[in-house]
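pinned: reference chain
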Amino acid sequence: MTNPEAVMDTPEDRPEIAEEDRMRAELYDFLGLLLAAPPGKDLLKQTAALDGDDTPLGTAIAALARIAQHSTAQGVEREFNALFIGLGRGELLPYASYYLTGFLNEKPLASLRRDMAARAMTRAPNVHEPEDNIASLMEMMAGLITGRFGRPAPLADQKTFFNRHIGPWARHFYSDLEAARNSVLYASVGAVGRTFMEIETEGFRMNAE
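pinned: its structure tokens
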């Protein structure tokens, strides 16, 4: 995860960004929270209260909310542990290096660390897992959009970071999360993430035209 000291905590510190970008950042942060650790009662309650619409993303969010309404923090913690921790390892390994090379701590992680250093992103001292895990990447993308690590990143820089570190594998990971044997609530998290990654990929592609 990135350094919490880099987060701008007060409203007056936050640069003004477009409403659409604020909503994108909030969804990235929301996915990052759900994937960093099992949600406690408060986050689960907030998830259950989400509203969707008739868009593909809205439909996925509404489905997630419905499942959250019938989930308990203890049950979701067991699900999270089976998916990502397990005895030795969980059902899924949510790291860019693993998805792109089949091994942990490979070239994708080294590339990410170089880009993190260039953008003044640092790993929090109490976090020991590789930075290329999906939760951290969602948080980093949100921070680039909002200016958590300085000024809000231009769209071109967001696109470069996404295409280099998220786009090549995140949609595949979220699809795997949807289909995982141990996924219940997290199957819907996977659907939200996959749909959002598709929207982001298409948005960045259209921006280049």
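why pinned: Residues 147 and 193 are 22 Å apart (CA to CA). The chain has one domain: 4-207.
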